[in-house]
Amino acid sequence: MRARDLPTLFTRKASTMIAIVSLTAGTAGQGQTPPSERGRGAGSAYSAKTPWGHPDLQGIWDFRTVTPMERPVELGDKAVLSAQEAEEFERRAVASRNADQKRGNQVTARRQVNGTTETEDLSLAYNDFWWDRGTKVVGTRRTSLIVDPPNGWFPALTPAGEKRLSAEDAVRERPSIGPEDRPVGERCILGFNSGPPMTPNAYNMNVQLLQTADSIVILNEMVHNARIVPLDGRPHGGIRQWVGDSRGRWEGSTLVVDTTNFYQGTSLRGSSPSMRLTERFTRVGADVLLYEFTVNDPTTWTKPWTAQLPMRKTELPMYEYACHEGNYGMTGILSGARALEKSGRESPTSK
Hints:
Elements: H1 6-28, H2 35-38, E1 59-62, H3 83-96, H4 99-112, E2 146-148, H5 159-172, E3 206-211, E4 215-220, E5 226-230, E6 245-251, E7 254-260, E8 276-285, E9 288-296, E10 305-314, H6 328-343
Antiparallel strand pairs: 1-3, 1-10, 2-10, 3-4, 4-5, 6-7, 7-8, 8-9, 9-10
């Protein structure tokens, strides 16, 4: 998010504030049984159809939530929160993320302890008004988006995965040699929540599905990326792409999208070009779309893993997420690195 985004975000924020009661209250009050336990058969799915007979998944879907990808350690083996526990979890999550409060606490700490170094925290780049991470747990009240492994955690990294992530961390910790050293989201190539797969993050967590008889379009608000997914049975192509090469099919009421041939790692930290992604979209109610994805990347994780994210239908419009225009941050980062090199204080190529 940069200065040019503010009019767009202000418009969305104002609209969101008007509709916040209906959007968030509905999420909190959704059914008690996790979708995985309800199943995906015709009896559990919403019955709306397109004119050509396919399940109707069309609309704009909101996937903001405070439910984390991994289960918090302190919750142990608890897979689902009670209503009271969910309310307390939401309260604590919202309070801990409040950028205004965090900024005030750090200012106080600096005043109390002379010379205290402020820990780098991106959330302090903007006040709390501009963040839109959500305020509610997912309607199933699961303690993590990951449902497999059952402990709600990522599987162990492979040795190759550990080595690759360590190398990426080393690059981030030194001045950047070129734009390739910066994350794909910062370079405006992929949104940091759009993936694929789609995962909740800081803001602009909306996706629109559009259907025809032989294809479906998955349009993410962030970086306005559109995946056109053929449904006609054609094989995967051989060209690697940033969002991979997607092919879709129907399994009963569920749309299954298989994606391969990634050009590079996606915005999902740790993924590699070898990742095979299987996404499932099932409309389980008039206002609920169950999104489930399985990541199979044997060069990164020791086993496949699966996450579930119930999305809520919204009547708010999609907004352009203008990222490239006036991307002064990239110019500043690279100019700063070159200045350090020139001064002799830092040499990125020597590390």
